[in-house]
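In the current project phase, our protein records have gained a structure token line. A sample record follows, to show the layout:
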Amino acid sequence: MRRAVSLVAALLVSTGSGVVAARAYLWAVGGEAVTAAAELPVPSRADAPGSEEVPSESPGPLRVFAIAGGVRLRLPAAGPLALAYHEASMPRRVTLRPLGSCVKCRNRWKFRPQRVGPSDLEYMVMDTRGRAGAATSAVDVVVRRWDRVRSPVTGRVWRVRHYALYDRYPDVRVAIVPRGRPDRLVVIIHLRDPRVRPGERVVASETVLGWARRFPFESQVDRYVRGRFPHVHIEVKRPPARRS
């Protein structure tokens, strides 16, 4: 009987029905084979050599997750682990309006979510940092180590700046002027290996900006998302009076 089913499976494979053939064969040899297959370890991309540099195609238009000053921000990576809003520290910030529902809000004296509970787009608002900015004037987008960080807007790169975070840790800041909105800047920090240059056109969800940086210290978002994953910080700002 097994031999006959194996012959049928081989025939199906030759005609392009490999999945059906495999199921037929496993059904024929019994539940032990199915159990053994289920117990096989699944390879992890994180375990693969050079997994952070694995090429990936554009995931297509990613979801709009926030709006700020008329600028619609799309997710910088498909399936982020968390969207965690907090108070920005620098001036000229524009408050972000999160879309979706809030699953954890630790700054209710500054922000009251319109929707709470589970949904297909969830975010959290972290504890106050004692700053004057709105509770949602910045967002940390937590991603996996191999995820490419893509532009959240379509526009042109204004500046790519290497600097020292807290005057100590190497970091990269990319500022983008959104298309049709010269009165706004979308700023992304905590990048490494930047792939764009000033003046370059970027397309939302398509253009790769770089990869998220993981720092050797605990960030605030690490208290909310276990695993010490990297994240990028995104703000929308009013541009300075003189842009040089």
